[in-house]
Amino acid sequence: MHLVWFRRDLRCLDNRALHAACEANEPVVGLFVETPDQWAAHHMAPIQAGLIEARLKALRDELGALNIPLLVTRAADYKKASETVATLANSLNINAVFVNREYELNEQNRDRQAQQQVEAQGIDWYAYHDRNLFAPGTIRSGKGDAYKVFTPFKKACLRALESMDQSPLKAPVPRADDKRLAAIFASLEPIEFDYPTKSVSAWPTTEKAILDKLRTYCREQAADYKTHRDFPAIEGTSQLSPYLAIGALSPRQCLARLQSEHPNWREPDSGAATWLSELIWRDFYQEVSAQNPSISKKHCFLEWGESVVWDNDNARFEAWKAGKTGFPIVDAAMQQLNTTGWMHNRLRMIVASFLTKDLLIDWRWGEDYFMSKLIDGDFASNNGGWQWSASVGTDAQPYFRIFNPTTQGERFDSDGRFIRRWLPALKEVPGKQIHQPWSWAEKYAQSLDYPKPIVDHAKQRKQALAIFEAAKNQP
Ligand code: FAD
After folding, report:
1. Are 17 and 100 contacting, i.e. CB atoms less than 8 angstroms apart?
2. pLDDT for residue 396 is more than 80
3. Which distant-in-sequence residues (6+ apart) come within 8 Å of 295 by Cβ?
4. CB 284 near ligand 1, within 6 Å
5. More confident residue, 398 or 453
6. 253 lines ligand 1 (CB under 6 A)
7. Distance 84 CA to ligand 1 centre (A)
8. Which residues form the catalytic set?
9. Quick check: CB of 418 below 6 Å from ligand 1?
10. Can you tell me the distance from the alpha carbon of 274 to that of 259, in angstroms, rounded to the nearest whole number?
């Protein structure tokens, strides 16, 4: 009997470990191990836990239709999870365990340990690269080096796409009836996490609904991605990140759907090519985290980044978290995050820049807060996005290029539609004045139930330049 240990690969279709486990004529059992202590230590958002829990319920039905029972069990943390898997494999008389690889340091250590424990019992261990379009380490420069800059990495990926087959796998064939499987089906307990969860009613969780969402997006919106993607008032991006983050959807499924709906996907200026670039950003950050263990330890990719002397003012951090900074685009974005668990990419860049360059707060504080709220929290993409914004990562935003939160609002939410949606207190502020509501209120002697800006952007900008310069020039 084969055991598939599911982690962040919660799907039946195009799942390499599951597919391989189903290739032989053997009964197959699925397993998921909840690790609440580890999730708490890594600030997993209750809304993401809610999504995983709901997705597991749907996955149990989908696997059930293939005659594969899905066991869900609990272990405090990753170390204990490997023992749980080895013990269960032994008690179920499993002859091979199948997993998809995970690339963060703790997860790699866990898998090394699990493999040893499983193999010590004479059980085979098979691990597959499944998470990305390209397995970490396969995209290399002509000299064989890892890329540190996105554009050449992307070009190399696009070249590789011409020769590497990225088609999604065929659906697994249902398993034959088997007495042992029947006993496991009969023993299944309801799925209920011992970890805080938040409702995910706004997010469909069946594989069919998720694939429908992908198809609809590619068919109806991807062509406009390039022109719409930077404007948070327009729903111009796919909002598929929660599914990619927990592996309810694979990047190969995204690529295949995009290519079939958009034969022009190679044209650099097309919406389809721009969307593909974003999927490649995802691969890029996974690659960076897989190749650099120091990223998992939350070190800055650029060494001098460790010398930045942050202000780390708690009151300012609290104002940022609560969306009470007095900068409307920042506050509206934080309201979107706090209320829905998702935030538009342009806004993630704006609020991350604001936290690090205007409030002079360590990017790691923001990274943790994002993880504690995001439905799509993904270590590599979140860390990569924060290090980029703080100018200390691979291919980062140069430190002297500092977003002005007011002009960012004027540019990307010019009529204030997004701000008005999330900050009702500013509804009455007319037109573009919404970006500087206090100037309007003072000019027209109006009262506003909205905070005054907690910092002076011009002053903070100068200070940011000084602390970054000092860090960079340290001997
Ligand atoms: P689309 O624009 O439709 O893009 C399609 C897919 O490509 C996304 O679903 C995502 O998987 C991937 N993608 C898009 N942009 C990026 C990017 N810049 N980096 C890596 N992958 C990308 N993304 C996460 O999935 N999880 C995170 O925890 C996360 N944290 C971030 C933190 C910061 C500070 C920043 C600046 C970005 C972060 N991102 C993160 C990247 C990006 O903001 C989201 O992936 C995107 O907003 C998700 O929306 P979407 O699905 O509509 O994306």
Report:
1. yes
2. no
3. 288, 289, 301, 380, 383
4. no
5. 453
6. no
7. 33
8. 278, 281, 310, 345, 363, 386
9. no
10. 13
Euclidean distance between CA atoms 414 and 328, whole angstroms: 12
- The pLDDT tens digits for 71-129 are 999 998 888 999 999 999 999 999 999 999 999 999 999 999 999 999 999 999 999 99
Q: How many CB atoms lie within 10 A of CB 311?
A: 14
Q: Whose structure tokens read 């009262």? A: 447
Of the candidates 386, 390, 378, the one whose C-alpha atom is nearest the C-alpha of residue 342 is 378
Residues whose CB is less than 8 angstroms from the CB of residue 76 and which lie 6 or more positions away in sequence, other chains included: 35, 36, 37, 38
Query: 430: CA distance to ligand 1 center in Å?
Result: 32
CA of 249 to the centre of ligand 1 (A): 14
Q: What pLDDT score was predicted for residue 179?
A: 92
Single-letter code of the amino acid located at 225: Y
* Atom of ligand 1 lying closest to residue 284 CA: 20
